[in-house]
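Holo prediction — cytidine-5'-monophosphate.
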Amino acid sequence: MIIAVDGPTASGKGTIAKALARHYGLPHLDTGLLYRAVGRQVFLDGGDPDDPGDALGATAFPDHLLDDPQLRDEQTGGLASRVSVHPAVRQALFERQRNFATQAGGAVLDGRDIGTVIAPEAQAKLFVTASVEARAQRRFLEMRERGAGVNLLEIQDDLRRRDERDRNRAVAPLVPADDARVIDTSALDREEAIAAAIEAVDLSM
Ligand code: C5P
């Protein structure tokens, strides 16, 4: 059983994917982390994230980079979004994701193109979304909790920019698969979102 969870940043897809993995006893891969590691590696190399060659070179990042807490910050998210437009970068990360998805016993993957590109045969496909306002508000509270100085309108602008880039790129744009079940978490709390996701997966089986 493969469960694909796609959607924009801060939609709640990571929380949902983790909860589904626990509920169904499946391993989970946050594929955004792979793109974040490439973005971070380009930065460490002093390269240009918009240069396809520099970005491709950074796909050879060491595994321990995946544990770097800095991968989660906004700056790295922006770099990830820039390196992820290059087809060669997506190709270089394909096999790792594909192998995870097709391991015996099944898996949960969350990202942007799991249901469309990485595992189009997934039995359950969720597209988790929420309004920009709701997502910015969540990100704002999350960052404030971590003690970061943050501005709600700046976060909204940044989310809009990233959505725009993810939706409009030529390769593997952020769009729901035809057979995805859409879950809008704008008005749902954590538990409600998880319950809706479990219901959607059960209906897909
Ligand atoms: O989900 P997260 O915010 O960690 O992803 C960071 C960036 O990586 C996204 O903005 C997107 O551009 C890219 N990404 C992608 N395909 C995926 C996962 C993430 O292009 N499967």
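READOUT: The pocket of cytidine-5'-monophosphate is lined by residues 9, 31-32, 35-36, 77, 80-81, 84, 111-113, 162, 166 (CB under 6 Å).
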